[in-house]
Fold this sequence. Notes:
By secondary structure, this protein is an alpha/beta fold. It is built from ten helices and twelve strands. Helices cover 34% and strands 25% of the residues.
Amino acid sequence: MAEPQCVDALAELFHQIGCGGVVMEDPFSARRHIANGDWDGYELPSDFIEREHVVVKAYFPQERDISQALTTGLKQVETSFGTSCRLSVEDVYEESWADSWKEYYHTIRIGERLVIKPSWEEFTAASDDVVIELDPGMAFGTGLHATTRFCLELMEKRMQGGEKVVDVGTGSGILAISAARLGAAQVTAIDVDEVAVQAARKNVVRNRVEGQVTVLNLNFNHMYENESVDLIIANLTAELVVEILPRVNRMLSPGGQFIASGIVADKWFLVEDALRKNGLLLQERLQDQDWLGIAIRKG
């Protein structure tokens, strides 16, 4: 269990030590969606809705010994965020894990036109809706969390169509697929997690955008830099955003945009300083409680 401001750091920790997938059960976000009328909430368990903490679940193969790395990482998260984490470990069948998150995941509208729909739910779309059908499997990225939502909202407002796009840390492929459905000419979606890559490729086919989206098992630092792109999207952490900014700056064409999220508010000073050092211009900043999403332009 974790406080809302540190869930992305926990997800990143789990991925770094080799998890097969992360699920975030965030009652704070769910309650906001219900209050806004996005969901009626009748299918969500009452014990989940009433919680005052976030649960971050990760799956690890039984043969992996991750106890030392997990203990060290949790201590670092607690120190960095001034919070406490409670660890619970249990054995589950892989099939049970792969289905458990479905209980908390339902169709959601984001921005003016974007609709994120689970593959198993029915939905009647309006004429101008852009519907993304998603089955995250064991990969991160459903649209529920504020960090993903920020990226989608900024993409919808700022994309004109015809862009060449890179999605860094694609997870389920939600941002790459949305970019394609919003008119991008070419999208390269990358992730270092093979589980995420497999889930993203299935979702690309499900949404019939395989002609626009290529999913690669690749580290952003190993991408070829000489071919400029119009838009880079990264739902990461403040530290990782700062780390990749020099490469982002080199890869963006003049006037190109960088949309980033996963930034905790009290780490904003790190990102702001890095933007200034790289000569990148802040265009828009969204905030939901402790989370920030930003749109950047290369001058």
